[in-house]
Amino acid sequence: MIAVLLVLAFVSSCRTRDIRVIQIYVPEMKNKACEDVILKALSTTPTVDPAKVQFDRVHRTVTVEYDSLSLSVKNIEFNIADAGFAANSVPANQEARKKLPPECLTDEKPTLFVPASK
Fold first, then answer.
1. Residue 33 located in a structural domain
2. Average pLDDT in the 21-26 region?
3. What is the CA radius of gyration of the chain?
4. Is residue 10 situated within a structural domain?
5. Which of 10, 71, 81, 100 is in the most buried spot, having the most CB atoms within 10 Å?
6. Torsion of Cα atoms, 61 then 107 then 36 then 62, to 10°
7. 27: which residues sit within 8 A by CB, 6+ positions away?
8. CATH number of residue 20's parent domain
9. In this predicted structure, which of 33-47, 60-74, 100-114 has the lowest mean pLDDT?
10. Can you list the positions of beta strands (E) in the chain?
11. What is the pLDDT of residue 10?
C-alpha cells in the first residue's frame, strides 16, 4: 500500500509543462511588415501562443513564451530564421529572405536605444 502511494505521489508531482519566456534578437526586424512575417512563423510553432508574442523595434527583440519541455530556444530561432530573419546567432534562410516584403529589405540602419539624459 505504501509503495502504491509513493508511486502515485511521484507520478502526480512530475511536471508536464515548463513555461519560459525568452528574448530573441532579430537585427533585421524594422517595421510592422517584418513583425507580421515573424508572427506568422511563430504561429506554427508548437507551444508558442501568438497572442503572447511581443515585439520591440527599438531593441530589435522578440519576446516569446514557450513550453521548454516541448520546445527548445533553437527551435524558435530556426523558425524565425526560416522566415528570412537572423535570430540570435542563427543566420537567416537566404531563400526565404528574398521573399520578404520590400519594407523588410531596406538598408535602414538599426535604431539604437539611447537613454534620456538627466
1. yes
2. 96
3. 19
4. no
5. 81
6. 0
7. 60, 86, 110
8. 3.30.70.100
9. 100-114
10. 19-25, 54-56, 61-67
11. 54
| 9 within some domain | no
Question: Would you put residue 60 in left (φ > 0), alpha (ψ -120 to 50) or beta?
Answer: left
Q: Which domain does 25 fall in, by range?
A: 16-103
Collapsing DSSP to helix, strand or coil, 87 comes out as: strand
pTM for this structure?
0.77
Q: Which residues pair with 105 in a beta bridge?
A: none
Q: For the range 37-43, what are the long-range contacts, defined as Cβ-Cβ under 8 Å and sequence gap of 24 or more?
A: 37/83, 37/84, 37/85, 37/100, 37/101, 37/104, 38/62, 38/80, 38/83, 38/85, 40/83, 41/79, 41/80, 41/82, 41/83, 42/76, 42/79, 42/80
Domain total in the chain: 1
To the nearest whole number, what is the mean pLDDT of the chain? 85
- Tell me the β-bridge partners of 61: 25, 56
- Backbone phi, psi, residue 89, to 5°: -95, 0
